[in-house]
Amino acid sequence: MDLLTIFNSLPNPQITGKDFVFCASPIDGYENHRISKDERGNATLLIASVKNSQEDVLPNIKFRNLSVLFDARCKITQENYVEEGYFTVLTFLGDKIELQTHFLKLCSLLLSSLGNSPKPSDIYKEVYRFVDLFKSLSEPPLKTVQGLWAELFLIEQSKQPMVLINAWHVSPNDRLDFNFGIERIEVKSSSTRHRVHHFSQEQLTSPANTKLIIASIFTEPTNRGVTLEELAQKIQNKVSNQINEIYHLNAVIMKTLGNSLDEAIKLAFDYELAQDSLQYYQLEDIPKIAPEHIPPQIFDLKFRVDLSGVPSKRKIKSCDKQGLFNSL
User: Fold this and answer.
1) What tens digit of pLDDT does each residue of 123-138 get?
2) 270, 220 contact by CB (below 8 A)
3) Quick check: 280 and 215 in contact, CB under 8 A?
4) Which of 59, 241, 294, 307 is deepest in the core (most CB within 10 A)?
């Protein structure tokens, strides 16, 4: 759904009053809700809700670029028609057009998760998740664009991207990139065409009865490559009907890039080089320091490993048919 186009077509509301007043338009497939413009011209999402009893009133939310009012009585104008009702009101308060665009994109994801007639409990849960994600767009980035592009590339190249998205880390700070229980994947990228990668001791110390592989990819910046935004769209096209997976995909990207999102998604890398260079390495073949050889006084150990002489594979077989590695 293109909420930005709908919003840009809306005039400012022409009536005023003590209630919240909006000029709004229904949304195809989500006719109970509205994309709207308030008296100040702010982009606003109105989620149809039922007025709760006094004891169930939730506190409203407000920070620098966003306000949320639960179960607010609103007056809505659309063409020559006026309606009144209770809505949960999400309003963008900033003045940056790029951030407003991300707000509306997140609103699309929120509506996909809620559906046309959500229960009050679902509204509260999804709105708080929305707020947490929107806040991350004001935070510093947690990982390099190169590293994120490599992870997205692995998802996009896989036979079953939905499986990899579900195994993808919730937080960019997680120890491993993909965790499917027994089978796990850590993605390493290099912009120098040399397979020298940074590891932590923890990453190369896998729990018993688990299997870890390292995916090594050459990620070379180029103006004629595929941008991070284009790569993410390729993935979304492959899982177009999977609402939860699309939400998770966008959530990880936004949390990872934070306030660098606008510039970062435009950076491009050599897609064909990445395809040709993708190799997998099994944990047992990678040079490492045995835990028993590390004094207890030494911790948080990090080092670089040259994989150029380590046996590699283009494919890794899973322990069972439903395994993570078979999805690659």
Assistant:
1) 999 999 999 999 999 8
2) yes
3) yes
4) 307
